[in-house]
Amino acid sequence: MIAEIITTGTELLLGEITNENSQWLASFLNEHGYTVAYMTTVGDNPDRMTSVFRQALERADLVITSGGLGATQGDITKQAGARALGLPFVKFPEEEQRLRRYYAQYGRKWQEPQERQAWFAEGAELLPNENGSASGCIVRHQGKILIHLPGPPFEMKQMAAHQMMPRLTAFLGNQGIIRSLVLSVENTSEIDVEQKLRDLVEAQSNPTIAFYARPGYIAIRLTAKGMDEGAAMDLLRPLAEEIGKRLPTACYNLENEARGDLVQLLTKSKLTFCAAESCTGGLIGKLMTDWPGSSSYFKGSAVTYWESAKEKVLHVSADTLSRYTAVSPETAREMAEGTRRLYEADLAVSTTGYAGSGGGDRGEPQGLVYIGVSGPAGTEIHREHFLGSRRSVRYGAAEKALFYAAEYIRAHHIGESASGAQQAKEEI
């Protein structure tokens, strides 16, 4: 089943907001076995939008849009969809009555433009909106399926999960599942990786292999489709093992990045997490809080750039800083342990290194970073050397810190037995 995702709204083309919906929908559809072959963004222009919808319906079996279901003149998605399908655009009287009740419930005066939300392509099946006024819809016509979802991410996600997917499963049956395994290879290039795996790439079908340059490493993504997760993993494991024989790889489990892997482990284990950041300057906190629901496990990040901040906030000893410098395994250890005490968290990471040009006063190279991970099983220190720009080093260090945190949880099997503040006091 080939799918295309279309996000609508001129604000996306102007770069005023992040296109979160495309990313989420692609991941959600892949989890349910749908192959997302195309993604398109189009502004609020009736002719261009209709043309984009027609093209999508020619090349995909399933077209899902988000945005443009409101009551203003710029909300034209449903009308453009009806035109693309060649269907009349009609008012649903029962939907108008529902809308009138909805607005009355919240004490809002009914205005005639709000009636626009009651118009749909003829024959559409409405999708109730659990969190807003605008209903979505599914239109099935001549073997194609066109679905309109709202633009606000929370509304869109809820409607897709609770309304859209159950109906698609009823229409089309189980589409299987698509799973990815991401391996990382350090200190090499995409070309070198490809050359060592050339025969596997040329023979690929299911699973498939792709390479991506990431900050500090090359990611090898293996993707397989099976009728269930077990079947997909049965296809992935032998290929991952073969690649592991040829290259020194680390596994990022089933997510497309270290953060997603860590979030799954924190949620499942009911652990809390925090960070102490020097060279990453708050990126770990940003990466964690960008993820929905992070308040349930992420307690905070202490950005301690100056040595005095490391001393006063994290209680890194002056002797450690003087004897070993701020960029050292010893400082990384005390930073991780200090922030774990500060936030009374189950798990903490720290980063300290040289992101800028020149490196350290003692000849340490640019890109040298020490990462600490502190938890109930003690504190571990990792030495990393990231290549590239200042930005690449910082992002590479932040992502690798999250990776090491996830590996710590897996290695030590920590979970609900950890008790945050008490464990931090007893074991540090």
Question: Which short descriptors sum up this protein?
Answer:
Molybdenum Cofactor Biosythetic Enzyme, Chain A; disordered C terminus; 428 residues; Maf protein; 5-stranded mixed β-sheet; 42% helix; alpha/beta; 6-stranded mixed β-sheet
Can you give a write-up of this model?
With 428 residues, the protein is of the alpha/beta class. The protein folds into three domains: 2-172, Molybdenum Cofactor Biosythetic Enzyme, Chain A, CATH 3.40.980; 192-251, no CATH class; 258-427, CinA-like (Maf protein, Alpha-Beta Complex), CATH 3.90.950.20. Helix content is 42%, strand content 24%. The protein contains 16 helices and 17 strands. It has helices spanning 10-13, 20-31, 46-59, 77-85, 93-105, 153-172, 190-196, 198-202, 229-246, 258-269, 283-289, 307-314, 318-324, 329-343, 390-412, 421-427, and strands at residues 2-8, 35-42, 62-66, 89-91, 119-121, 125-127, 136-141, 144-149, 177-186, 208-214, 217-226, 250-251, 273-277, 298-303, 347-353, 368-375, 378-385. β13, α11 (283-289) and β14 (298-303) form a beta-alpha-beta unit. 41% of the residues are buried.
DSSP, total strands: 17
What is the helix content?
Answer: 40-55%
Radius of gyration, in Å, reads: 25 Å
Low-confidence regions: 252-256, 419-427
- Shape type: globular
CATH architecture of the largest domain: 3-Layer(aba) Sandwich
- Report mean pLDDT, rounded to a whole number: 90
Strand order of the largest sheet: 2-1-3-8-7-6
Query: CATH H level of the largest domain: which superfamily?
Result: MoaB/Mog-like domain
Beta-strand percentage? 15-25%
Total helical elements: 16
Q: What number of structural domains do the residues give?
A: 3
CATH topology description of the largest domain: Molybdenum Cofactor Biosythetic Enzyme, Chain A
Query: Which CATH top level class of the largest domain fits?
Result: Alpha Beta
What oligomeric arrangement do these chains adopt?
A: single chain
Biggest sheet descriptor: 6 strands, mixed
Q: Give the end-to-end Cα distance, rounded to a whole number of Å.
A: 53 Å
Question: Structural class of the secondary structure composition?
Answer: alpha/beta
